[in-house]
Amino acid sequence: MAKGNKTGGGVQNKAIYSRISFLQQAATFLSTQRQTHGSHVTGASIGAPSDSARLPAPDGPTSVPLQGMSRRLATDLRSVSLKTRIRLKPAVKQAICKFCDSVLIEGESCTSTVENKSKGGNKPWADVLVRACHTCGRERRYPVSASRPKRKTERAVSDDAASLQRKKLKG
User: Where is this region: Disordered (predicted)?
Assistant: First the structure.
């Protein structure tokens, strides 16, 4: 018996996709963790932080985020996707600062605001999400998805078609 061709198959480059997924998860995890003076790691946003994470003693260990390791993993994630020519999803790209490669977590490492610079803020399709990175201070702007109304030329074409439909129904 000969082997039959498998149709449908799986995902091509599955190992690369899993590597990118791992790098993203690890970078996000490390950016939420804090390291005390030794090698002890405590959760920053998981449960209640320890006393040393909240208020370090003057002579005791200080709590610092693991930003360096997180940024390195985010840099590796970006380089792997560029080298293998795999497109990252917009949510993944927006979760990493383009300038300093730090993982953006709302309230911890970035601040998000919605701006509308239209006259009086009347145009809902002009809303823009502005994310400011706390590490490098740079801002990125992303359009908030709101449907724009049709242009006047497009409205005129659809109005003409609708009026022809009405005339056909009447006559």
Answer: 46-67, 140-171
Bridge partners for 111 per DSSP: 132
**Residue 56 forms part of a structural domain:** no
Task: Show contacts of 113-121: CB within 8 Å, 24+ apart.
Answer: 114/144
Contact 101, 74 (CB under 8 A): yes
Q: What are phi and psi of 113, to 5 degrees?
A: -135, 155
d(CA 39, CA 66) in angstroms, rounded, equals 11
Q: Residue 8 domain-assigned? A: no
Query: pLDDT category, 45, cuts 50, 70, 90?
Result: very low
23 assigned to some structural domain? yes
SS3 130: strand
CB atoms within 10 A of CB 31: 25
Confirm whether pTM is higher than 0.85. no
Domain containing 156: what range? 14-48+61-170
